[in-house]
Structures are given as structure tokens and as C-alpha cells.
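Support case: user asked for a sample of complex input and structure output to validate their parser. Sending the pair below.
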Amino acid sequence: MSARIATQGRLINRDTSVQFKFNGKLMSGVRGDTLASALLANGQTLMGRSFKYHRPRGVVASGAEEPNALVNLGEGDRVEPNQRATTTEIFHGLSATSQNHFPSLEYDVGVVNNVLSRFLPAGFYYKMFIHPRPFWKHVYEPFIRQSAGLGKAPDTEARDPDRYEHFYAFTDVLIIGGGVAGLQAALTAGQSGAKVLLLEQTAHWGGRAPVDGGTIDGLDPESWVDRTVAALQAMPNVTLRNRCMGAGVYDHGYVLGYERLTDHTPDTPGPRHRLWRIRAAQTITATGAIERPLSFAGNDIPGVMLASAVRDYLVNYGVSPGDRTVVVTNNDDAYRTAIALVQAGLKVPAILDARPDGGGALMDEAKALGISVQTGAAVAKVKGSKEVHSVLFTAQDSDGSETTEIFCDAVAMSGGWSPVVHLWSHCGGKLQWDEAQAAFVPDPDRAPVGHDGTAFVATAGAASGMMTLQEALMDATQIGMTVVKRLGHDVTATEPDVVQVDEAQLMPVWMMPAHAPKKLRMKAWLDYQNDVKVSDVQLAAQEGFESVEHTKRYTTLGMATDQGKLSNINGLATLATALGEDIPQVGTTTFRPPYTPISLAAIAGEARGDLFQPIRKTPMHDWHDANGAHWEPVGHWRRPYTFQKPGESVKDAVHREVRATRNSLGLLDASTLGKIIVNGPDAGKFLDMLYTNMMSTLKPGKCRYGLMCTENGFLTDDGVVARIDEDTFLCHTTTGGADRIHAHMEEWLQTEWWDWKVWTVNATEQFAQVAVVGPNARKLLEKLGGMDVSKDTLPFMGWADGELDGFPVRVYRISFSGELSFEISTPANRGRAFWDALLEAGKEWDITPYGTEALHIMRAEKGFIMIGDETDGTVIPQDLGLNWAISKKKEDYIGKRAQARSHMTDPSRWKLVGLETLDGSVLKDGAYAVADGENENGQRNTQGRVTSTYMSPTLGKGIAMGLVLNGPDRMGEVITFTNSGDGAKKARIVDPVFFDPEGEKQNV
Amino acid sequence: MSDVQLALGGASFQGLAKIEELPGQGMVTLRADLDDKAVVAAVKDVFDVDMPGLRGTSLDGANGALWMSPDEALLLCSYDEAQAKADALADKLSGAHALVVNVSDARSVFKLTGGLLREVLAKLAPVDMAPGAFEPGQVRRTRLAQVAAAFWMDDAYSARVVCFRSVADYMFGILSNAADENAQVRYF
């Protein structure tokens, strides 16, 4: 059984105990423990259940690569699923539960899958859930959803109470990984004077060198690390951040860092995670290497761990994985584990070395300690279920039928080491196969390159495939110098003097024993988290999945939250063997960011709650808010949909506003309308190209309504253009269109008509704009006084500058409601005061502020189109009967050519008409007019659809506009509309202008 | 003017830096060829400042000029003088191809004060805020979180941020949030 021992534990402080809960059970660890080491110290080797078979699983690794020991961490608002116990530092009150078990971790009924596992082979889901089709929705999907995923999603009502933020950092050299190679690279680069940022994902510097031993510059690795960190901290041009993982490398030297500031002290105020958005001229990935498991039957039983992890728990945390540990290996490094265990007073009954001749100096050292070493040996099978009982060992070059049993309670395995090439590969760094180490290593000649074709990422140390201390430090020094040279710096660094034990070469072992029969292969796990076995990959190959990418998806190898950090090489080696190909020919799957999962909250940063999105507010926003505004989002703006009085329904409020405006006086905050100033000798020519109608002939002091189309001829925006002077126009756009249309203008000016003399300025926010609407509108302005707004001085479609009640204003005599109407702009900072003045002076006419819905109803009563209602990106002005606004005289305008295409001139295009239901009720928005017969998909044919529809309080009946086949030629005809499940509705085709067709009301 | 109302009525927050909404700032947008000698002379004449170079500022008391693009400058003056100065500049440039617009009311201005203002801005803008990389005399026309903004430093301990008036509330929110006193980064 795993336990805390009396010695070792370089990272823990035994004097400070830390209480935590696992599956509700109170446990005790010490400061410096990870959740994994603390659980092992409590004898808790069983930490979770596997995904597909619900097999008992314990911790395999000691770091970011851990596939098994995933927990639901935290409670209530702080629940997070799939947290790796190996990278979770414990704190007082930590609460974790294991995942994927029912009803309990110890007694899981899902384990029945185990017995049935031969019925769940590779591709099971694809094979099983195809037929019969109707089963999908009610049988298969619920089943898959129930068994999908390991962790539980937080409660939908949970709200993360923590803070998160981003930080933009720029540096010359970014080094990812604070092991000895990263430190040495940082020291080298730092000495050149370059700006250096060094990130380390764990809380500790030095990586695994202090565990693995050796001598650097006459010091033990830990002392060397301390000395080097101190030296780096003293350099003003070097920044060190621990608990900060390099998550992804992207184009242009962009790198994401994921800093976990308070995960280990959750009650500390301040941000929990910080996402570092880094621009680095050069990046060095010193990300180390990950040990590979060996594929033998029972390699997933709790107690079977990576040899390096066993050593880490022992040396770093003073935890033994068991009293009797069998070591099985194909290389020398695992001997270090055996030696460390024996030196700590623990028993190692045997080292099983797959190599016929065994290892080198480390083997001799182990033998000298009295450890039994079996060469050419393999594990045939590990016996046990929730814990290891024994190992059956056999000859590696056998089928495993002749075995000898060794009683033990832990197994330390090592299949060699794979460099962590993820970050190198994220942005296109290529790999090459290193035969001697049986590993993919970065190919420095095919590095990720920047815009100028030069390399911007390099690897250092074990990440380069330099697996010994001496090689790693030599590489790091060289790479440090190379990288600063690329930046034009110069430095001459000396490589540290390293004393190390020479190691014998490893022997690739992809199956143990080499000729294992299916019975054993079916129990030899490649991917622990997703339950993919050697037999699954072999079956996939047999079924024709030759590409590693296809095999990955078919078997789910490497698709779990660990993204195959342990299983990748073993899986593709198994595939290569099954296909009879070499491993480099099979290749790897694609490495994608992030390196390990990062929190969504870190990605969101400050964008949550009130700061989720900017909400644009007009100068009158606060008044609206205080006066019953029922808000509607329009672009990023909030506009009042209507102003509700106490006890009033939304519908009643809208109708009251329409009636008050039509009968007396209404007030609309129109500040959100886009206002773009276009100026220059070529301004008229430019606007003639932008609008479908002629703008250059507009006289100063006058306004004209205009339409804008895209290059493809579709209507994209509309609005009133006012000519300010000979060279200057003010173009009103829709609320949502202001920024888009301004960008559209600038694009044409900068890319196509760069030689035209035109300037534009988006002055939308300079002005508050108020529409004063209704029969009493002029009386109100006359009461305020200051300028002549009479019909003769300021006729319909005219504008004038002046003063009203002391406010500097520009008054546009335009109408979007069919009423006598003035749109008045005043500087934004005076907008609220102007609004208040209008309200005060308008009291005698019962002045009524109205919202966007009343605006929409009044324009619909007049048959005016609305961009976004009558248009949807597929509608041209001709569809809407707007031919009067399309100049025939102009040689060209944006969209003209497209509107001449055969499909655009097709007479069968649906055209705008008014619609009136026979019973006076309201048509549903978007309802289709049905036609006889069915189309080729068996759907009912259609002949039109509703584009906007309202109950008109003015007319006391439902009115609508719609696009109908040959509509304008079918006036008076009755057609049938769908009514979303509520039967059908008959409506008569009528003129879209329902109210005051002669325009007498607005022209007074 | 008593009825001149700021977007936030002069809000302020004290954290890693002090964040304050400034009273009305006169701002005039100039679209013109900034290398044109007549343009440079007119700006000097009306605003009494030199035309700044690429990403530069030219500040002198209440007056100033900020480089926005090769053909756009933002000219600063007192709020009350903005319209008159805009008119005067437009008058002087009447023969040239130039557009002058008073945009004082379109904007809100925030002042950041304190030694950690670089950190506050570096949480929001994709700009290298390191000493030496960004200093007084420079301006950045960029974004802060999700909204367009421009900022510059008046000295080592104070900076000004300009944004559209409609998002003043959001800007104040993100600046105050980034300036949370427990959120020091210690990078610069």
C-alpha cells in the first residue's frame, strides 16, 4: 500500500499539515503536497474510474501528462471537472471527488462493462449507433450523453466568484519550461542583455534534475538550480514566472501563457488565473520529456506507475507507492527508481529489463545494492484489480505462456522518454524520428518560421531529444546563444561542467511480451483515459484505418483531456507494427494548443458580468432608464423599445406612444443613427457611387433619402443624406450600420479610389439627435424659439442650422413616421439638457417619448422599409419597389452591375406588397405564403413571406409587409399564410402604404 | 456651460492607479496630408503646436496634436474653444484638401495616475507598455478590451485615455477592474 515514509520529500514541509476531503472523507496531507501525493500518502491508490469500462484507476504519472487521476475539484460555485490531481497543490479545505463512478468509487456497477468489454471494440459507437435511424434520438443519443465525459459540468446556476484577467507582454526571448535547460537558456540569453521571460508551469524550478541526480558545476542539481534562479532574479532584464504554463504557440511569435495565481490559495484576493498574451521575437521551448508506459496486460491497475513518477513521489513528497515495487524497463533510467527505492529502505523484488543484455553502470549499481535483475524479461500480466497483487514475469521474446509470479504491491514501468514537442509543433515545427531513442524529436532545420521565413521557435534540453544532463545543458547553452544571435545580440556563454553516469541504449518495446496473444493484448492499455487498448488499434488497422489521424478518431486514442501525452507514441508504434510500416511513415497526429486544458474564464478575462460586452449609451440613456424603458439591443446600443408606465403592458405602452404621436406630439431619441461626414471636391462623385440614387445633384440645405447596396447588388443600408455645403455631405446610416458603412467608405477610398479627393469622419457620437414628431411638433419648436422653422423657411426635406432655446442645433425636416417631423441634433454633452427642455416645453401637448417599436409601427403604416426587416442580405432595391431611388442616369454605382444579372432581373423574384388579414388579426413574422404542390424535398411550395407585421393602433387592425411572387400585379388577391402551428391565415394583397398615402400629414 | 454633461459626471476610482473621468476636452479631428506644409503651418497657427510624427504627440499645455494615421491628427484645446478653433482651422485650410471636425462631444477622456498605470493599460491593450517601449511623446490608437481607444502618457505617472462617449461606462469599468488593488502583475 502507498504511504508516507519518514525520509525524503524535498518539496514538502512535514510540520504543516493540511486537511482536505476526498469523496467526503477527511484526509490529511502536508504543505507542498499535490493532491496526488497526498492521496497516495493516505493509502488512496484508487483515484477514479475509466471512461468506457469503469475500470479502477490510480495515478500513473506525477505531472501534467496524468491521464487517470482526474477529479471534480471544489464545491458549489467553484466546481471544476477533470482537474489533474498531479498538478493540484493542496490547500486547507480542498474538496475533491472522483469521477465516472456509480454509486461509489469502490463499488461501481458500471464495471459490468468489464465483462462485456469484448463487445465494445474500436469503432463501437460508429458501428452500433447507425441503424435503425429512428433509434438515434430516443435511444442512442440519451445513452451516449449519459456515458459521455468524465467530469460533471458545474450547476447551471453556479456563478464563478473569482477574478480573471489578461496581460499583454512583449519580450525578446520567451523561454517555456523552468527545468535546468530552461534556466541555463535563460541565463545565457539574459547575459546578452536581451529581454527574457521564463515561464514554468509548476511551483518549482529545476524540473526533474534534482530527482534524477548528477553534478553541475560541482553542485548537486538542486543547489545549482537555486544558484541559477538567484542569478536570474538579479538580472533586471529577466522575468521569472512560475505556476505559468506556456499553453500555445501561434503565428507571428504570439504565445499564450496560463498563470494560476491562487489555485493553491483560493481565499487570496486578486485574480485566480491570468492569461498572458505574449509577443516574443524568439521562443525557446524547454519543455522536457515525458516517460512512456509499457504495454503489458494489466498495465492500468492502480499501483502500476511510470518509473519516473514513483521516483518523484518518493524524492519530492516522501511517499512510497508500495512496500514492494517491481521495476520493468527497456532503458537505464528506470534503474534510478529501483536504486532510490532501495536506498529509502523499500523493497524492489526484481528489475525486469527487456533488453537481453540489460543496462550499463546503473544496472551494476542496482546489482551492487542486492537488487535482482532479470534481463530479456517482460511482464506477462499484472494480477490484481483495485490494487496490484503480483506480477507474472516472462521472457520478452515469448508469448507469455510461461511465467513466474512475483508478489508485489506496485509496479514502476519505463518504456523510454518522448520529448515534449507540442509547443514546437503548434505553429508548424516538424519532427524527425530518432531511432536510437525511439522517439520523435524536433528537426531544427524545419522550425516554425515567421513572416520573413526565419525560425522563431527553438527547443532546448530534453525537448530537443537531449536526454542526459550533460547533453541537455550543452544544448540549452548553444540554443541560448543561437537565439540571441538571431536578435542581433552577442553572448559567449560557457557550458556548465557536468558529471553524470553513462547510460546504455534503450531497446524499443511496443508490446510486452513481444508475441503476446490477443488475451493479453486486450488487457494492455495504450490510452488510459479513453480506454484504448493495443487490440483496439490493431483492429482499426485490420479494418483499413491506415492514417494515424483516422485511427485516432476511430479508436479515440489520444482524444481525452490529456490529448494522448502518454499514449501517442505507443499507439502509433502499435499502428505501424500492425500496418507493417515504419513509425516515421505513419507519423504523428497534429499537436494543437492548449498544451493542457486552460480555464474558459481565463480566456474570457474581464469579459463577464457587467463587462461582458460594451453597451453603448446615448446621452439620454439615464433618463430612459429612470422612465420605464423596456430595452432593446440594437448593435451594441441599448435603445428603449418602449417606455412603460407603472402597471402598463409593453403592448399597451407601444400603442399609447403611437396614438400620442399621431394625435399630438412624440419624442424619439435618434442619437444612435450613424452620422458620417464626407468632404472633398470628389465627395459628390463618391456618394454617387455609394448610393443607388444621385447625390451630387443635391443642393446645399437639402436632404435626400438614399439606398446603399453591396457589390453583389443587395441592399445593405439606407438613410438621409444632407448636403452641408458644396464639398460636404452628412450621411445618416442605420443605427447598426454606422461603423460598418464608415469602414465600407474607407475601404473603397483606400483601395479603389485612392486618388479621389474625399475625406470621411464618423461623427455619430458628436451629436445627440432627437426626433420631434406629430401635428404639434412645429408648435413646440416655435415655443422654444430661436429659429424659423416655418414651412416656407424650412420645407420638407430641408435642413437649417440655428438655435432653439439657446441650444446650438441643426434641424432636419424629415419624417420617418408620416407625421410632421423634425430631427434635431445638438452636441452630445448638451443632449440630455435639450431632451429635458423639450419634455418641459411639450407638456401642454402631452409630449410622449416613444421607443423603437412605435417607430417601427409608424413607418410600417407608411410602407417605409426597414433595413434588417424587409432586407436580409438577399433583397435588392428593385424587389422593394424602390426603383424610384435608383438612378437611371448614372453610369455606375456599387451594385449596379450585379443588379443586371439574369437572376436579379428575373420577373419571378418576390416583390414587396402590403398584406391585410381578412379577419383583422396579425400575421406571424416570417410566415410563408403557401402555394400548390410540393418541392423535390417533399416540402410545401411557397409564394411569399412576411417581412414585418404589426397590430396598427392607428388603423385598428393587423398590417404587414411581405415579399410575394408577382405581388404588385396581384392587388386584391387573397393568399394563405402559415401561422406556426395555429392553422392558416388568409390575407389580401394591398398597397404597402396603409396610412395617409398622399403624404398630407407630413407636408404641413 | 451649466448644461454640458459628461457621460459619467466625473467618475473616479482608486486602485493600482487612479482613474478619473476628465472634464470636457476640446478635440478636433483633422483629415489631411499631415506632411503638407500648408497643413502643418495652419495647425501651428491655430493650435500653436507642431505636427507630431509617426505615433507621436505634440503637447503644450492645453493644446496638443496627436498622430492618428498618416492622414489624420487629433488636435487638443480647451473645450470651450474647440468649435472656434475648428472653424478657424477649416478657414485657413479652405484652399487645401482637408476636413476639420469638432469631435469634443463624441469622446470621453480618462486620466490614469500612478506608477502602475503601465500595468493597468497592459491588461487591456495589445501594446508594449514597458518603459522604453512606450514613453511620453508617443500615442497609440488601439483598443482597450473590446472598444476603440487612443492613449498617451503626459509624464511617467500619468496617462490619458480617449474613447467614444457611448462606451464611457464600459471604459471606466474595465479600467477600474484592471486597476484592482489585488491584481498587480509586477512585470515592468
